[in-house]
Specification:
By secondary structure, the chain is of the alpha+beta class. It has 15 helices and 15 strands. It folds into three domains: 182 residues, GAF domain (Beta-Lactamase), CATH 3.30.450.40; 95 residues; 189 residues, Heat Shock Protein 90, CATH 3.30.565. A hairpin with a 5-residue loop joins strand 6 and strand 7. About 7% of the residues have low confidence.
């Protein structure tokens, strides 16, 4: 029995057979499918098709003017040892059942070749013993049939509709997946070429750096060249960081499987080693995500993308983002939102980044078993975010970042480095005081102290500086409020930015 996906055997696109054939070959060439290399996605498609339908033979081939070029196959040995199809990796076009699939780009199903007078005399049936067949067209994104995904059996069989549908999905998936990967590959190559073209003679440009007393124009050329080389390095670093994620995922996954003793019982020492491997892999994976979240590769660091933001949902996103970091430090997070206004116009990504780095500096410098509190409120047409640290054994009244924290002490000492002692003592011992942090002043003071190796909490200070800088780009400000007796808290304030749209 034979049946086709749809009984339409002619095209209505106005193209002659020759034009259509040229269109197909061009599409195959444009996708880089004639270079002879093995394509893992196609290998996976043929293996999956054979395994799901339990057929001995599966082939993925490209339709060319003279033959069906086999790009991937499984089970060709069933056609006979050292058979022509296996050795040549192709089937003559006139001998292939795929010919009838591309004539009308719909699937072809043959349940018994011997029961049909047409297919019974074919080379595949008579010489190779093919009795059952399904052919599914491979349709490109431009709606051109470039090949066929086939399964074959050496005995007659009936194919269920769900098996045909599965093959259709597999064919569609493997073509789209290949096209997406190929386009990404082309984009990377194009970016690399553009960077290389911008630096046609890298050796000459680098030689300029060793010559100290050049005219101004020569110095400018040297600087431009250095910027281009730096951009190439940044692009390469971005690719390396992304590639790191794949092996780390494998390490974490395999260590988890081994830890569950699926492949055999482990002794205590082996379990301990596996746990170390898994946890180290997870820590590395989180560090990679943190590097990516820095967005150092962004092109428009100072541009704005203002949009209405649901602050309740935004707060939950922040909690989810930073929760793992808090758990690592044996701390908790708690979010509260003042009733009332819920929607606020702002650059969500910039606020997210500023909160992320500020919270990291708070968590890293806080005590174990503490709770980092985040409170959203509105005052004087400003969106306020207050952050403090609470210790459970002091109760809810302990609403302060720990006053003895070395980070807070460093911030205060840096801020008052150029102030007189009386003003410093007035803030430290008086009632509730306020310091508005300036990234410029803070960085200048920090840089002087850091060079003398007198600064503790190095990473915490860096994250605080970055947060302060991002807040200022959004026209907001960051202050420290409190006193030595009452404790301290951070307050972020953001105006609602009105766009001219």
């Amino acid at each position: 029995m034979i049946h086709l996906g749809q009984r339409i055997f002619c095209y209505l696109d106005g193209l002659t057979p020759e034009e259509r054939e040229n269109q197909r070959v061009k599409a195959i060439q444009d996708l880089g499918l004639l270079n002879g290399e093995t394509i893992p996605i196609f290998e996976e498609a043929t293996q999956t098709a054979a395994r799901f339908l339990e057929t001995p033979i599966s082939i993925l081939g490209l339709i060319l003017p003279q033959n069906l070029l086999i790009k991937s196959a499984i089970g060709l040995s069933h056609l006979g040892l050292m058979n022509n199809i296996s050795s040549k990796r192709e089937i003559e076009r006139e001998d292939s059942f795929a010919l009838y699939v591309i004539d009308s780009p719909h699937y072809l199903v043959i349940e018994d070749t011997y029961s049909d007078s047409f297919f019974a005399h074919s080379v595949l049936a008579q010489y190779y013993g093919i009795r059952a067949y399904i052919g599914i067209p491979l349709i490109s994104a431009e709606n051109i049939c470039i090949g066929v995904l086939e399964v074959m059996d050496l005995v007659p069989r009936k194919f269920a509709q769900k098996e045909i549908e599965f093959l259709n999905l597999t064919a569609r998936w493997c073509v789209r997946e290949y096209e997406n990967n190929y386009l990404l590959k082309l984009k990377r190559i194009e970016n690399t070429k553009n960077n290389v073209q911008e630096t046609p003679n890298l050796t000459q440009n680098l030689e300029k750096y060793t010559i100290s007393n050049r005219e101004l124009e020569g110095q400018k050329n040297s600087k431009d060249s250095g910027n281009k080389v730096f951009q190439i390095k940044v692009d390469l670093l971005k690719e390396i960081i992304q590639e790191l994620k794949s092996p780390l995922t494998s390490i974490i996954g395999m260590s988890s499987i081994l830890g569950r003793e699926i492949y055999g019982v482990l002794n205590n020492k082996q379990k301990e080693y596996i746990k170390v491997i898994r946890e180290s892999g997870q820590n590395l994976s989180e560090l990679i995500e943190e590097i990516i979240s820095l967005d150092i590769f962004g092109e428009n660091q100072t541009s704005f993308k203002i949009a209405p933001v649901d602050l309740e949902m935004f707060g939950e996103e922040i909690i989810n983002l930073i929760e793992k970091k808090a758990i690592q430090h044996k701390q908790k997070l708690e979010l509260t939102i003042e009733p009332g206004q819920r929607i606020w116009k702002l650059d969500k990504e910039k606020i997210r980044q500023s909160l992320y780095y500020l919270l990291i500096s708070v968590i890293n410098s806080a005590e174990l078993n503490s709770i980092t509190m985040i409170h959203f409120s509105f005052k004087f047409n400003l969106f306020n975010i207050t952050i403090w640290n609470s210790h459970p054994w002091l109760g809810d009244s302990a609403s302060s970042i720990e006053g003895e924290s070395s980070l807070i002490n460093n911030i205060l000492s840096l801020y008052f480095a150029e102030e007189n002692e009386s003003k410093k003592q007035e803030f430290l011992t008086g009632n509730l005081g306020t310091i508005q942090l300036s990234s410029g002043k803070l960085f200048k003071s920090w840089n002087k102290v850091e060079q003398k190796n007198n600064l503790h909490c190095y990473q915490e200070m860096l994250t605080l500086l970055l947060s302060c800088q991002i807040i200022e780009t959004h026209k907001g400000n960051l202050t420290i409020q409190g006193s030595e007796d009452l404790g301290y808290r951070y307050v972020l304030q953001f105006p609602q930015i009105i766009t001219n749209h």
